[in-house]
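step=predict obj=Uma2 family endonuclease n=174
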Amino acid sequence: MPSITIPPLENGDRLTRFEFEKRYEVMSKQKKAELINGVVYMPAALRYQGHGLPHSSIMTWLNFYVANTPGVELADNTTVRLDLDNEPQPDALLRIKSELGGQSRVSEDDYIEGAPELIVEIAASSASYDLHDKLNVYRRHGVKEYIVWQVYDQKIDWFYLEEGKYINLEADEV
């Protein structure tokens, strides 16, 4: 009987969440891949000023918030299972612990399932899908706040969910 070879994960593949997870599991060198509306997105290498430095600033800010807000947890680059077609890996997220009324939970296999209360993306080259496809996925799943830091445009978009729509706070330039 011939052995079954699992094909590598490729940018643009159209997969279910189960197919995506199976392929992602066998990829040893890929650090980040996301499934958005059934399409695989694999980012380019991350640059220092375009991603690493702003990411560290966001994590410092969110860590300060968590240190002063009981019942809230912070995660960095953690996979979130939203539904059968969407499994993003946001740069940062805040969630209220489920036992305290949060809308997400940690699965038995240690993934977040359901919408965290806040998601943050650092967008250098990814702004086009962070502000469209991902924004719509997060809105549909009830992520209460969504922040996109457009590094090259020196702009932060901060959206909050109101009556099923995202309202942009029109944040100041960074």
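step=describe
The chain has a mean pLDDT of 91.
step=end
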